[in-house]
Structure formats: C-alpha cells, structure tokens
Write a structure and sequence with these properties.
Layout (H helix, E strand, L loop, with lengths): L1 H9 L5 H15 L3 E5 L2 H11 L7 E5 L4 H9 L3 E5 L10 H7 L4 E4 L11 H11 L2 E5 L7 E2 L2 E2 L6 E5 L13 E5 L2 H10 L4 E3 L2 E2 L7
Parallel strand pairs: 2-3, 2-4, 4-5, 5-8
Antiparallel strand pairs: 1-9, 6-7, 8-9, 10-11
Helix pairs in contact: 3-4, 3-7
Length: 210
C-alpha cells in the first residue's frame, strides 16, 4: 500500500523511478543488459520485430499453438506468419519443425515458452545461426523458468514478455518489456516505443506510443 501511495503522490504513472527500479532488478535477475519496459506484451513483440528491421513479406516462424498476439503482430507489420506444429508432450515449438519450415524468405523464429516450460532452445539457436535468422522469445507465459540454468527471455537476440495480471509475473493493470543483450537493438527499441524519438519533438522513424 505504501508503494502504491508513493506512485499516486508522485503522479509518475508512465515510467518513473519505480519502473526504473523494476527494470534494474529484472536486468539483474535475467543477467541481460537491456530490459526496456513498454505498455504490454503484444507491443513488446511488435516493437522487437520493428527493431530487428523485418520488412513486409519476410517470413517469421511461430508455433501454431500460441495466443493470437504472437501471430497477430506479424500480420500487422505485413510479415508472413509460418505456423509449425508443437511437441505433444510440452506444447512447445521444436527444432525439427522449425528447420522444415525455413525458406529463402525466412528471417526470424519466435519460440513461445508455454506453461512455465522452456522450448528446447539449444538446437533452435543453432538452426538460427546456421541460416542467419533472428530469434525472438515470447516469454509471456514462462517468466521464471530456466533452460539449462539460464532464465528464459535471456537466450535469443530479443525477447518479449507481458505483465498482464494473469501472467506468471503480473502487474496492477498491464505492462510488458523487450529484453535484449544487444545495445543497438535496445536503442532502437527505446526509440520505437516513444514515437520514434530519442529526444522530445525530434522524431527520426515511425514508432509507437508504448
């Protein structure tokens, strides 16, 4: 209650010192240099794809068994979602299904970690490196899970997570974050979530209000 009152009295409802404290703690927990908070998990996925420079017509491999947002943002950006089947034991995407779906137009893979379980990332990352593809983790349903000792959300080129109240780590209201070890991607994400702007009233690219 005291924490909530401090936020209310500060009137810093977007960003602000409390969000920065949370960001720093999440960076430390994940062992990743850049956690960039945004409005929700769907925005996090979209902004991550924008930051990676994906272009209309590019194909993005996603599991067919996922929430609509994973594929929806791909369509909104004019990209092509390529659905793959999942492992019937874990309901997660598999490396074999990913490799079978790759074409010359494939640019990214979006493993979705479901039900607190990590997808088998090692072979997926190896396939991505072999074909020069980006890996964007959808970690909205598995915050706190580990893969071979490393937290999910810290394994790919970028990750998106959600703090919707029903998620593993829920907020009062909504929220999300993009996670990346890459400072170049992080800078693009910060700009894109803020109307494509690094400083007020100077807009360099088309961005979002997130």
């Amino acid at each position: 209650d005291r924490e909530i009152q401090e936020v209310l009295q500060s009137t810093m409802f977007i960003g602000g010192p409390k969000v920065n404290t949370f960001r720093e703690k999440m960076e430390a927990y994940l062992g990743v240099k850049h956690v960039i908070p945004c409005a929700n998990g769907t925005d996090a996925l979209q902004i991550a794809m924008m930051a990676l420079g994906l272009q209309p017509g590019d194909e993005v491999i996603v599991p067919a068994f996922t929430y609509v947002a994973t594929a929806e943002v791909i369509g909104l950006l004019g990209l092509v979602p390529v659905m793959t089947d999942v492992d019937p034991e874990t309901f997660n995407i598999t490396a074999a299904q990913v490799e079978a779906a790759i074409t010359p137009r494939t640019k990214a893979i979006v493993p979705v970690h479901l039900f607190g379980q990590s997808a088998d990332m090692e072979p997926i990352l190896a396939i991505a490196e072999k074909h020069g593809l980006f890996v964007i983790e959808d970690n909205a349903q598995a915050q706190g899970a580990l893969y071979k000792g490393r937290p999910t959300g810290s394994l790919g080129h970028a990750a998106a997570t959600s703090f919707y109240p029903g998620k593993n780590l829920g907020a009062l209201g909504d929220g999300g974050a993009v996670v990346t070890p890459d400072p170049t991607i992080a800078n693009k994400v910060r700009m894109l979530r803020n109307y494509g702007s690094e400083k007020k009233y100077d807009h360099q690219v088309l961005g979002c209000n997130s």
